[in-house]
Write a structure and sequence with these properties.
Length: 307
């Protein structure tokens, strides 16, 4: 399957010919960009999609086309989820668990990028707290709702190649804060979470993978361009339709054993590449199983919850 698709493939092209009418999917971050496009495509092909967003009013406006597509084939519902608040995360997860409806695929797409120094409602550095810890708690709390044979797709970034997680300074208490470094660290954490989640759940038939959607001109990246114009100039930009492709490919098209525990870009699994001068591949530290276990344990300590 991998050879059929690449950097310019769109989500519609990837999923063409698939009937998703028996599938139920959760997508976080459906108030703009890739999350909206991912939800639209899946609903258009028959999936029952639950979209999670912090601002429900904004999400309702952004997903009008999703509702149109869903009315003709699939289904679409919204739930409130603020990944920068453990209270919101736990409330949303508890409500989903209480409802008891299961999922075939969870796509953890939401996140913040290159934001100024700040903290979440619980005092964590904003990007680590939102991009990693928020999804860490949310996904683990709903893990029992994922059907055997299901998948977790964590939306990471090629930015991980520029910064490993610092387990001794996750909240930048001792390191000078840099918005891009914080973002890159949080996305390395996203990949490591997928690695450890996959290890813990693959015996039960659930696989997890991390994907880089590509550099996509969305609300999030436009803000980064304004703040970091020099850094933004190096990217090869994709459309939103292309940006949603790898998540859809990894969640529905690729073989589970092909993507499970791995990192994907441009609709294929990337090889390990630790050459700092090359802008492709996945860094070995992002797939290191011991590093992933250590981050999991540290994350449990931070949120005061065991999974």
């Amino acid at each position: 399957m991998s050879a059929l698709f690449g950097a310019t493939s769109t989500a519609d092209e990837v999923i063409e010919g698939y009937d998703l009418r028996s599938r139920r999917v959760l997508v976080t971050g459906v108030s703009s960009g890739i999350g909206v496009e991912t939800a639209r495509v899946l609903a258009a092909y028959g999936a029952q999609v639950v979209g999670a967003a912090r601002d429900l009013n904004k999400a309702r406006l952004a997903t009008e086309q999703v509702r149109v597509q869903a009315a003709a084939s699939g289904g679409f519902d919204l739930v409130e989820l603020d990944l920068a608040s453990l209270t919101s995360i736990r409330t949303c997860a508890d409500e989903l668990v209480k409802a008891g409806e299961r999922f075939d695929v969870v796509i953890a797409n939401a996140g913040v990028m290159a934001s100024p120094r700040g903290t979440t409602a619980d005092g964590f550095e904003t990007q680590f707290g939102t991009n990693h810890l928020g999804h860490f708690v949310f996904v683990n709390r709903i893990a029992n709702l994922i059907n055997p044979g299901g998948r977790l797709v964590m939306v990471a970034s090629a930015g991980h190649r520029r910064a490993d997680v610092d387990l001794d300074d996750l909240n930048f208490e001792h390191t000078p804060y840099d918005p891009l470094v914080a973002y890159r660290r949080s996305k390395t954490a996203t990949i490591l979470f997928a690695v450890e989640f996959d290890r813990r759940h693959k015996a039960g038939g659930i696989r997890a993978t991390a994907v880089h959607p590509g550099a996509v001109l969305t609300e999030t990246t436009r803000k980064m361009i304004e703040d970091q114009p020099a850094a933004a100039s190096a990217f090869r930009w994709k459309t939103v339709e292309q940006g949603a492709a790898t998540s859809v490919w990894a969640g529905f098209v690729a073989a589970a054993d092909e993507v499970g525990g791995h990192y994907c870009e441009d609709c294929h699994v990337e090889d390990v590449n630790d050459n700092p001068t090359e802008a492709f591949g996945v860094r070995s530290y992002a797939l290191d199983p011991e590093h992933a276990k250590a981050l999991w344990i540290r994350s449990e300590e931070l949120v005061d919850e065991r999974f």
